[in-house]
Amino acid sequence: MPPPWIPAQMAEKLCCLKLGNKSDMNRPHRIPPSFGYLQLAVSILLAAIMAWPALADSEGVLPKLYTNQQYIEEASAVTTLDITNIKSVFKYVIGSLPDTVKVYPTENYFYFSFIHGGIRWAGNLRFDIETRDEGKVHMTYFKEFTAWQQDEHDYTAVLGAADGVTVEKIRTLVYRVTYEGRSVIFELNDLSQVTPPPGAVRQEEKYLGPVFDESGVRFFLVFRPREKAFFFILDESIPLTDELYTSVVSKNITVGRRTGFAFYRDRFTGRRILIGVHVGNTSINNYLDGPFDQLPDNFIRENELLDAILTVSPELRGTLDRFGNSADDSVRYLIAPYMQYEDENELELFEECAGSEKPEAYYGCFSLGPGPDTPPPPPPPPPPEGRLSPPGKRN
User: Fold this and answer.
1) Residue 179: half-sphere exposure toward Cβ, Cα within 13 Å
2) Can you name the residues that pair with 100 across neighbouring β-strands?
3) If you placed Cys at 341, which of 200, 237, 276, 379 could pair as Cys (CB 3.0 to 4.6 Å)?
4) 8: exposed, middle or buried (Cβ count in 10 Å: 0-12, 13-18, 19+)
């Protein structure tokens, strides 16, 4: 494609310009000065055409611009949507999506939000690993939580053939959803080929699978049987989607400027262990509330996750499925081995604990769960007894 400053007619002539055959070029002849200038101009333009793709690629993708004008116009728009009718909202969501979308989070939530009646609503469609092949999709939506209000009323449903909704498996991790003549293909995130790089998982640890959080940060879920400890290890084999700065607390602790995720640099391997999530995000259950709700469902091998859970909580044997869900599917075992911190100085407890030279004692500092012969970890805020699944987290 020629650069935009070259007229189409000129580009057409340049592409078809005959410069003479070999026999003509071997003949001695004189070139008028004006033709020499033309030849120079042609050479410059052809060089620009050849360089155009490379110049475009070197510029990369520019950031997307958001304006206050957009926000005000969305907030003040008079919209017509029967917000209390789940099927009407489902039709609106499906009708607003492109033909194909990507579901990044590894618990298979497709999150969305919109402003209606001056209020931001949020929700998700979930392709639950245990029901999607039965032709079902879970939907929930609600008034978005804020720091000053938390309306607990949800609209939620499991939609399927009885509701006029078709969920069809096209191939592994790809589903077509159809409702009232409108179809959208949902591509779930295939991380089946992702493997931790050297140093991300120690020999005595069990790798449970890759985690893609709705924050856009990727982790490896790891279990240490001796300490009965789960870890979320930052995946640094791909470009980071955050900027990490060194904490004032310790040179071993870094914090994400965008996410607020706090990491401790492992002295034995150099990996980064997630140690903290900001309470301002967990309190409103937003995209930055931590990876507890994005376990690697599609990539869990047999009973490996359940075995790890029962190592920590053997009293739950016989009450959970292999994903850690209760028998009635109302509660899922909570794996959140990190602090919910309000002030960065609270993270100093990890530095104080991590002075041991013995790995078995050292690693006990980075999980808030109990373990044998380990120093007491920093005290966590009281977590919920479990988490709802479905409909899943509020965002």
Assistant:
1) 25
2) 185
3) 276
4) exposed
